[in-house]
User: What shape does this take?
Amino acid sequence: MRHFTIFALLAAFSACVDTSNDVSDSEAETAPQQLELAKADAPTFAGIYATSTTTLSEGDVPDLELISGGTYVRRRCYHSDCSLPVAETGHYDTYKSSSGKTYLRFYGFTTRWNAAHDDRTQVPVVVDVYEITSTTETIHLRKSYSSRWLILRKTTAATRCTHTGGSWAQATCSCPGDTGWSDTTYVAFVPGAGGCTTIPGVSESECDDSEGYYTDDDATLVATYCQCDRGEYLASDGCTAL
Assistant: This one.
């Protein structure tokens, strides 16, 4: 009787476990890249968003800008308690699973080497995937295979500027400590990464030596001049493993 009772309890517990997220998450992570952002009836989440939550966890995206056409800027938490917040940019798409869940998929790139020509190309790859729901003023994000939801509220570039100590005038933010580019660190305004923020300054040789992609005079949307592969971030001495 005791064994039967334990078995019955386990069976009842298993019946109550909702695995629909896992199924939909897997579907969203493996589906081909979508072109639905160009469709007239595609969901649109364009805007600047920020959370007011101060207790952040691995995988949280506390700041985000989704640009019409499929480009994102975000601040993404890595490691426990968001000990490594990283400003990132790339392309995104949205995906609707067969169960009706909507997902936001963030892309980066991995490097493909051509030994015959001794050159390399950037191949787009999904970095991570989040289920997304929205109201008129908020979006809610849940990283795939997790149960944590983070609420972000719509905001503006001007608000992100002043919130981080900057001065907003004529659609431009003047950040405290902004002295222009440096090959050590410098300050720049990146609304999708929170506002006025410290940027890792990397020289061309440091970028090249760490197998990054130096952008010459063309800054990325997170105000850096070196692009790193998926699984890496830009530190003060070049591309470094996360």
